[in-house]
Amino acid sequence: MDSGFRLYSSMVLLFGNKNYGDHLGFIVTRCPNCRSDQVFAVHQERRKLTVYFVPTIQYRVKQYMTCTRCVTRYEIAEELKTEIAERLMTKDQLDKVLGELSGGTPLTTPSCLVCSSSLNAGMKYCPQCGTRLI
Fold this sequence. Notes:
Elements: E1 15-31, E2 36-51, E3 54-67, E4 73-75, H1 81-87, H2 91-101
Antiparallel strand pairs: 1-2, 2-3, 3-4
């Protein structure tokens, strides 16, 4: 005897996406906005599909360079990524180069290690990305 009612089991699928940021290093090159040679922070943003809050598939990767003077951000073209990667410097290498250029006194500007935004003395958290500062 069929009453016409059928019970179906349903399942909830939770999915979304999440951005991840990686600081790659620094490069010195000409800024189109400042019209002078400046230090740029180079970083990469990756977007991943998440299933039940677990990152599963990476579906977009973009690299950007941000001028540390005017804070203008430029996307790095695919054909320039190899050239930029060859010229990347760590913070220590950058301080050494800037110190040599300034006559032995290293020029250091405090910046966030995650997003490279400028910091003021006494800050406990980065105002841009919220990372706790050491």
